[in-house]
Write a structure and sequence with these properties.
The structure holds two protein chains of two kinds. Chain A has helices at residues 2-21, 183-202; strands spanning 25-31, 38-39, 49-51, 54-60, 66-74, 90-98, 103-111, 117-126, 130-137, 139-143, 152-159, 165-176. By secondary structure, chain A is an alpha+beta fold. In chain A, the strands form two sheets. In chain A, strands 1, 3, 4, 6, 9 and 12 form a six-stranded antiparallel sheet that branches. Chain A has a six-stranded antiparallel sheet with strand order 2-5-11-7-8-10, with no helix packed on it. In chain A, helix 1 packs antiparallel against helix 2 (183-202). Chain B has three domains: 35-62 and 174-254, no CATH class; 66-170; 260-361, no CATH class. Chain B has four helices and 25 strands. A five-stranded antiparallel sheet of chain B has the order 2-15-11-12-13, with no helix packed on it. The radius of gyration of chain B is 20 Å and the shape is globular. The model of chain B is unreliable at 1-35 (pLDDT under 50). The chains are: A alpha+beta, B mainly beta. The A-B interface holds A 40-45, 62-64, 66, 68, 70, 100-101, 103, 105, 107, 109, 116-119, 122, 124, 126, 142, 154, 156, 158-163 and B 56, 145, 149, 190-193, 197, 199, 201, 204-208, 219-223, 238, 267-269, 306, 316, 346, 348, 350-352.
Chain lengths: 203, 367
């Protein structure tokens, strides 16, 4: 009985090891700070504070409060889920506190071949209630001009609620990617398989 | 009934900003009666800002605009329905005529289960912020994502059926309704900080618009043209006035003759038009009967309604299970709180639930 438990634990450990070999959440585009993002007044109704750790909004919201930032063009092609669904794994690394779930929407912009801004895709989400930066998944919405995904150049962030006090900081855009197994994790899978096989033979 | 001169041109679908000669019932109270389908007008006031600080008005454009001329039927009987299209085999419309981006149209259902539903007809292109889809044919209109995005994924499931009667209405746009600095006195500018601004909430997402001196623009990267963004009569908008004079609009059109049905988001913000050209009350609008409405003895745990009165004062209300209450010391009763014609009802529903529920609102007068 003890042997079986030990082997089960070994298998579980090996699987956990595999799962943690590569982080599933990765930063895409730049981490937001004063030198990486540019405030766009023409696309904003409020002016957040930008510091070393990100873009901070600390106010009682009015519905429609929004801000836009641009950054050096980034290629998001590898994060595309499909042409019909667009991006389904994107999110923000962000912190936040609010008295109630504060809904927001996000438009991801790219530069077209004609060097014009185009909405690549729209998303929705909720401000988190944690002061520790964490991945906040975005719900994928309408797909726009996917031809611009190799030149993602900024975003527009809009609060869809009013009269809620929030203090939130956007640290970076992120994607929840499926990890590729490394050599170590493949070895762990092999070990787990051997242990399982041996256990099966003994029983 | 329409003023004769208004029949001459499709442009007259636009909100007429000069006081017109109107007959009929300018409805001033509930439960009025009239012998024919009346037209009327509703004055919509946008309160002045200070010139340096903005004041927010919650407004809507009530009444249904039939003051246009098209080839083919403006009302008839539905002979076919798909998930997103409505067909009248004898409509005789000119292909694309109901789908021009600058002059959008609506189709209202006037009988059957879906009575009171009004759908936006898709435009043929997204020019100027128009909401595009398949253009109308001689017999068929396609509803746009403004409706399919609000939970109406299947017209048949929403109750639209063969044999129902329908009617076509003109739909205002930002430019036709709110004009320009020279026509209505709005304040234009290069950014939202120096211009009047308008917030629409479409299917839960807020979008801000300004007039940049040349045209209406979306506040977004690239400031795209928003001249043709539809202003739906069943939703309202928040107008933040920077200029130091009031703006007085006069909405002209036909008085609704049926109950209304429309979609409300299950969480977050919906901006409802008051819609009917009579003053209403919180009790008579009966939002508390909407499926999923959260009532509670304390405001913090209840869905809320925000109203802005003509003096620009904002008040918040909630339903405690037996009546409407104002969020204030003593939570005073608010069942009879007036909601003026031409105003907007700001709904803020708790939680993070997805989807939409249908608000059914009875006709508040007898025709």
């Amino acid at each position: 009985m003890k042997t079986t438990k030990l082997k089960s634990s070994l298998i579980a450990l090996a699987i956990a090891f595999v799962a943690n070999t590569n982080a599933a959440i990765v930063n895409i585009g730049p981490s937001f700070n004063t030198s990486t993002v540019n405030y766009e007044a023409s696309g904003s109704t409020i002016t957040p504070a930008v510091g070393a750790s990100g873009i901070n909004v600390n106010k009682t919201l009015a519905v429609g409060d929004q801000f836009s930032y641009t950054f050096t063009p980034s290629d998001f092609t590898s994060y595309l889920t499909s042409n019909s669904l667009g991006f389904t794994t994107l999110g923000f690394a962000m912190t936040g506190t609010s008295a109630a779930p504060a809904a927001f929407s996000l438009d991801l912009y790219g530069l077209t071949a004609a060097s014009e801004f185009a909405v690549i895709q729209s998303f929705t989400g909720f401000v988190p209630t944690s002061s520790t930066s964490a991945f906040v998944a975005l719900t994928a919405g309408a797909v726009g001009d996917l031809t611009a995904i190799n030149s993602v150049v900024g975003f527009g962030f809009t609060f869809n609620v009013g009269d809620i006090a929030v203090n939130t900081t956007l640290n970076s855009l992120q994607a929840d990617v499926i990890p590729e197994p490394s050599s170590a994790s493949l070895l762990a899978i092999g070990v787990a398989g051997l242990v399982a096989l041996r256990a099966r033979r003994k029983s | 009934m329409q003023v004769d001169s208004m029949k001459e041109t499709t442009n007259m679908k636009k909100l007429n900003l000069s006081l017109a000669i109107l007959v009929a019932a300018v409805m001033a109270g509930n439960a009025q009666t009239a012998s024919t389908e009346p037209v009327g007008y509703v004055n919509v006031k946008i309160a002045a800002g200070t010139g340096t600080a903005k004041k927010v008005s919650y407004v809507s454009l009530p009444l249904l605009d039939k003051g246009f001329s098209i080839t083919g039927k403006t009302q008839g009987t539905i002979t076919g329905v798909t998930s997103t299209t409505i067909t009248d085999s004898t409509a005789g419309w000119t292909a694309g005529a109901l789908s021009a981006p600058a002059t959008p149209f609506l189709i209202g259902i006037k009988s059957g289960t879906a009575t009171g539903r009004i759908f936006h007809v898709a435009s043929s292109a997204s020019t100027g912020g128009a909401v595009s889809g398949a253009a109308n044919t001689a017999t068929t209109v396609t509803i746009s994502s403004l409706d399919t995005g609000s939970g109406i994924t299947d017209l048949a499931a929403a109750g639209v059926a063969v044999g129902d009667s329908y009617e076509i209405y003109a739909c205002d746009t930002l430019s036709s309704a709110l004009g320009s600095p020279s026509t209505t006195g709005i304040t234009s500018g290069a950014s939202v900080a120096v211009a009047d601004s308008v917030v629409l909430v479409v299917n839960g997402s807020a979008v801000t618009y300004i007039h940049n001196g040349t045209r209406w623009s979306k506040v977004a990267l690239g400031t795209p043209d928003a001249s043709n963004v539809p202003l739906l009569p069943y939703y309202g908008f928040a107008y933040s006035r920077l200029g130091n004079t009031d703006i007085n609009l006069t909405a002209i059109g036909s008085v609704p003759t049926t109950a209304r049905k429309l979609q409300i988001k299950n969480s977050g913000v919906s901006l409802l038009a008051q819609f009917f050209p009579v003053d209403s009350t919180l009790q008579s609008i009966a939002l508390q009967n909407t499926p999923g409405w959260v009532s509670n003895a304390t405001a913090a745990s209840a869905d809320k309604v925000i109203l802005v009165n003509s003096a620009g004062v904002s008040s918040t209300y909630f339903y405690n299970g037996t009546g409407w209450r104002r969020v204030a010391l003593g939570t005073p009763a608010a069942d009879t709180t007036a909601i003026p014609a031409g105003s907007m009802i700001f709904i803020n529903k708790l939680g993070t639930a997805s989807g939409y529920s249908t608000l059914s609102q009875a006709l508040p007068y007898t025709l």
